[in-house]
Design a protein that fits this description.
417 residues, mainly alpha, 3% strand, 4 strands
C-alpha cells in the first residue's frame, strides 16, 4: 500500500509538472508575437531553456547529491519558478525585462525535471519497468495543459496560460514535501563541471558511430527549436482550427495531438527496434523531421486558404520526430557505452541536445524568423520550414555516411583505473 501510495504521489507530481510547462510554453511564441509584438526575440526566449540546461542542471544536481535533500530543493525551485511566472505575466512593454524573467524562470524550472526523475528512480523497486509508465503521466499532463488553453477562445493571446502555470508551480512547491525521500550521497568526491556534463567519459569512447549519433542528435535539436518556438504562431497565422464533437479546437489544442502521438509511438518503439534495429529507428526519425517540414510548406497558403490536412499530418509526426530521435539516441548510448561511463555519456547527450542544440537552434530560428518577417503581420513561412527541413536533411546525410552500428552497437570496454 505504501509503494502504491508513493506511485500515486509521484504520478500526480509528474502530471502537474508537465501540465505547468505545457500550458504556457507552447503558446509563448504566439503571445509574444501577436499580443506583445516581441517578434524579434521569440527565439531568444526559447533559447533560455537550453541555456538553463547547460548552466543550472549540473550545479543543482551537485547540490542535491551533496548538500540539500532533493525534495526540499525541488520545493525551493518550484517556488522561484511560480514567482517568476507571475512576474512575467505582468510585463507588457519591455523586451529585455521579459527575456530576463524568462531566463530566471528556466534556471529554476529546468533542473526540477532531472530532480523529479531522480526521486522517482530512487523510489521505484523496478525503475526499468515502472519509470516509463509513470513518465507517461507527464506527457498526459502536457496534453491536458494544451487542450485546456485550446478550449478557451483566444486564451493564448492573454497572460492566462502563464498565470495558470504559476498557480500550478505553487501547488508543486507545496506538495514536494510529500514526495519520497532521496538521501544525500555519502560519497565526497570532488565536483567538476566536466564530470557533471559527462565530459570526462568522452576520452574513452572510440566508436565513430557514437559520435555520428551525437552530432546528428545535436543537428536535429535545431528543427526541434524551430517547432517549439514558432509552430503555434504558424498555426495561428494559418487559420488552423479543428471542429471536434461540436467544439472548436484552437492551435494550442491542435498541437496537443502531437503529444498524443508521442504516447502511440513510444509504445510502438520497442517493436520497431526489434524489426529494423537502432539505426533504422534513427533514420525514420530524421525522415520524419524532413517530412514534417515538407507537409507544413505544402499546407500553408499566404492568402489565408491553408490546408489543414497536411499541417495536421505534420503535427501527428511529433511522436516519430521526438521519440525516435531523442529516446532512440539515448537507447543507443546505453548500449554503446561501458556501464561505468553510461551515466556520464547520457549527461553529455542531454547537454548537447537540450542544452547546446536547443540554444543554437533557438538562435538560428530567431534569425531566420526575423529574415522571413515581411511585415508586422506577415511571414514567409515557407522559408522558415524549408530551413528547418534542411537541417534534418543535413543530419540524415551525415548519419548515412558515418553510422555503422545498424543492428547492435559494440559495447565500449571499461577502462582500467
Amino acid at each position: 500500500m505504501l509503494v502504491l501510495n508513493a506511485r500515486v504521489r509521484l504520478g500526480a507530481y509528474l502530471f502537474l509538472q508537465y501540465f505547468m510547462l505545457g500550458i504556457w510554453f507552447v503558446a509563448l511564441g504566439t503571445y509574444m508575437s501577436q499580443t506583445l509584438q516581441f517578434d524579434s526575440v521569440i527565439g531568444l526566449a526559447y533559447a533560455a531553456q537550453g541555456i538553463a540546461a547547460i548552466i543550472a542542471s549540473p550545479f543543482i544536481g551537485a547540490l542535491a547529491d551533496r548538500l540539500i535533500p532533493a525534495r526540499r530543493l525541488l520545493a525551493i525551485l518550484m517556488a522561484f519558478s511560480a514567482g517568476s511566472l507571475f512576474l512575467l505575466a505582468s510585463i507588457r512593454d519591455n523586451e529585455v525585462a521579459f527575456l530576463g524573467v524568462v531566463l530566471i524562470h528556466f534556471l529554476a524550472f529546468v533542473p526540477t525535471i532531472p530532480l523529479t526523475n531522480a526521486i522517482c528512480l530512487n523510489a521505484l523497486s523496478e525503475p526499468e519497468r515502472d519509470f516509463a509508465r509513470l513518465r507517461v503521466l507527464g506527457t498526459v499532463g502536457w496534453i491536458a495543459g494544451g487542450v485546456l488553453i485550446g478550449l478557451i477562445t483566444n486564451a493564448l493571446l492573454t497572460p492566462l496560460p502563464i498565470i495558470i502555470a504559476g498557480a500550478a508551480g505553487l501547488v508543486l512547491s507545496i506538495s514536494a514535501r510529500y514526495l519520497p525521500d532521496l538521501p544525500i550521497s555519502a560519497e565526497k568526491s570532488s565536483f567538476s563541471i566536466g564530470k557533471a556534463l559527462g565530459l570526462d567519459a568522452l576520452s574513452h569512447i572510440k566508436n565513430r558511430s557514437f559520435w555520428a549519433v551525437s552530432a546528428c542528435a545535436l543537428l536535429l535539436s535545431i528543427p526541434l527549436a524551430f517547432y517549439n518556438a514558432y509552430c503555434n504562431n504558424f498555426l495561428q497565422e494559418s487559420g488552423a482550427r479543428l471542429s471536434l464533437l461540436g467544439t472548436t479546437l484552437e492551435p494550442t489544442a491542435i498541437q496537443a495531438f502531437g503529444q498524443g502521438s508521442e504516447l502511440f509511438f513510444l509504445l510502438l518503439l520497442p517493436f520497431v527496434l526489434r524489426v529494423i534495429g537502432i539505426g533504422g529507428v534513427l533514420v525514420i526519425g530524421m525522415v520524419g523531421w524532413l517530412l514534417r517540414s515538407t507537409l507544413f510548406v505544402i499546407g500553408y497558403s499566404a492568402g489565408g486558404d491553408s490546408s489543414l490536412a497536411p499541417i495536421m499530418a505534420g503535427i501527428l509526426l511529433h511522436g516519430v520526430c521526438y521519440d525516435f530521435i531523442l529516446i532512440g539516441a539515448a537507447l543507443y548510448v546505453d548500449k554503446a557505452v561501458a556501464r561505468s561511463a553510461r551515466s556520464r555519456a547520457q549527461s553529455f547527450l542531454t547537454m548537447i541536445t537540450m542544452g547546446v542544440g536547443i540554444t543554437l537552434g533557438s538562435l538560428i530560428s530567431n534569425a531566420v524568423y526575423n529574415l522571413a518577417t515581411t511585415s508586422e503581420a506577415a511571414r514567409d513561412w515557407d522559408m522558415i520550414w524549408i530551413t528547418s527541413g534542411a537541417m534534418a536533411a543535413l543530419a540524415l546525410v551525415i548519419f548515412l555516411l558515418t553510422f555503422r552500428d545498424w543492428r547492435t552497437p559494440p559495447r565500449t570496454k571499461p577502462q582500467a583505473s
